[in-house]
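call fold(seq) -> tokens
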Amino acid sequence: MKDKISASGRCRYCQELIGKRGMTKHLTSHFKKIALENPSENFSYHLLISNGDYFLHLLMNSKATLETLDLFLRRIWLECCGHMSSFFIRKPYNEFDKKTTAVSVFQKTLKLDYHYDFGSTTPLDIVAKGVYEIPIVGIELVSRNEPFLIPCDICQKKPSSAICGIHGHEYRFFCEACCDKHAEECDAFAKYAKMPLVNSPRTGECDYRGGSIDTERDGVNKMGNG
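ret:
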């Protein structure tokens, strides 16, 4: 994919826009304050899930299962055709049953690999960044990267909203106004190759057209108005 603006996300608690590198530290301060003000015997894991510049920060209840996490990832980033998926560690290789709870997994390892679709695979890195006495139900989204600004290949001015992936293995990007121009020279674009540009590492793969969680940030960059 083209060069993008620096990845940043908005904090759920204070709505501040924070760069990818600083988000973990920023959220940690909120988590510590919440745990101190509302002590609980229940606890949750802070998970950072990423693929390149795409990222999610989640809180996951210690008793929630990998199946719950799998469903969440599918709904926010991945689901297109009901493909298979897997949680595993690479060395030594070990695949985890999806009925396994978060506490059982992250007491053994702080890093997991995840693959969705074993054909056109979308890989994700999962890292447990901390554990806090914060009671939640299941999984909560606390931040994700804002949509990236990718200029249109034709006009070079407006942000892209659609992609065409038949030009070798490189995607081409087009704003709404320039889609018709590209369709005039690319029959496949009009017939089947036009895909929406969405805020997910699954963009352009298979028949992925966007998620059903946090849909406000699942679209394209709105030039500061999204």
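Residues 8-144 form a domain with the Structural Genomics Hypothetical 15.5 Kd Protein In mrcA-pckA Intergenic Region; Chain A fold (CATH 3.10.290.30).
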